Amino acid sequence: MIESHQIKVERTAHYYTIGQPGPKVKYLIIACHGYGQLAQFFIRKFDVLAREDTLIVAPEGLSRFYWQSGAGKVVASWMTKEDRLSEITDYANYLEQLHQQYLELLAPDVKTILFGFSQGCATVVRWPMTHFPAFDTLVLWGGMIPEDLDYKPYKDYWGKKKIHVVYGSEDQFITAERVAFHQQLLAEQQLIAEETVFNGAHVVDRDALVQLFEKIRRDEEA
Q1: CA distance 61 to 64
Q2: Whole-model pTM above 0.85?
Q3: I need a labelling partner for 114 at 20 to 30 A (CA). Which of 26, 88, 120, 181 fits?
C-alpha cells in the first residue's frame, strides 16, 4: 500500500531589496511577485519608489521551475493545488520570519505595506490570515483576496488596515464580471477597499505605482 508522508526540512529562500534598513526608514514595503516571475526582476518596478525613508523587500516564491518545459527561463511560484495547505504554511512562515527580521532593524513606528501582484495577492493575504502580523496597508494589484477564507471573525484586525485594489483597464485577467465578483466578495466579508484603475494591462505600471504610493504617504502623514 502506498502512503503519503511529510518531513520538515530547512531550505534556502531568496529575496531582494531596494534601500537600507535603519532608523530613518518610515515605510517598509514587502512586495510579492506573481506566478511565473522572479523577485530580482519584479523588484525593478519599484525603483521609482526608492527614497531614504523607504525600504522595499521582494521575497521570491519557494517553488522554481522552467517556464517552457525545460527550455525556457527559470521562474517561481508561490503555490500550486498539489499539497496546497503545506505550501501555504511554508510560505507564510517564510514571510513572517522575513518580516520580523526587518522589523528588528527599523524604528518601532515604521509603516508596513504588503503589496501583492497577481498570484502574490493571495500570498499577502494568506500570510496575515495565518500569523496576523502588524501591518498598515494592503495593496492588491491585478488580483483579489482568496475567496475560500472567512475574514469576518477577524473584523477588528482587518478593520484597521487600509486596502487598495488596483488593476489595469486592459488587464486580460480582470474582466468586468471578475471585478463585480470581487466587489461583492469584499462587501460580504465586510472589508472596505479603495479601487484604482489605470490605463494598462496585467502589469505593475510604474506611473500608477508612484501615484498610489504618493496617496498612501499622504494618508499616513495626514
Answers
A1: 7
A2: yes
A3: 181
